[in-house]
Write a structure and sequence with these properties.
The chain has one domain (2-122, 129-156). The chain has four helices and no strands. The chain is elongated and about 65 Å long. Helix 1 (2-21) packs across helix 2 (34-92) and helix 2 (34-92) crosses helix 3. The protein is mainly alpha-helical and 158 residues long.
Length: 158
Amino acid sequence: MIALTYSIFAVLCGWLEAILYSRRASEAFDSNEHGGMSYQRVAVLLVGAAAVGRYAWGGPWLLLAEVIPTALLFPMVHDEAYNFTRLWIDWKGAPGTTPTKLLSDGEAFAAARKEYRYGYQSPTTTARNDFNGQERTWLAIAGAVLLLALYLLPILHR
């Protein structure tokens, strides 16, 4: 449960960081980014609640064991959300648009969705350390396998 709630947090972090690092800030989209910030805060509360539930259900060792696969899943979830949002922002201010005829958020989203491929790497990223798509995939696979083992082993050993 921690991995799921933390992944929601990771998506929101990727989205908000893409807005920040696009250097367009609040001008990146027509919509207000503060809604996403509120969802991010709710996700943090859910992570805390999931951690308390995990602790109550399995104790401290299982809680700590779930942190490892959660951390391994983070780069894929965060970076894919970040890179998609950077592409979305690029379409929002795509060449050929003028201040009187900009793409709507929805039109830009649809255009980015058509262009986006898993493992896409934003050519405009400013990240100093970044995993490529293949590295993110392998980390996520390792995290998913560990997470499945963590939840399935107790059931299989009954």
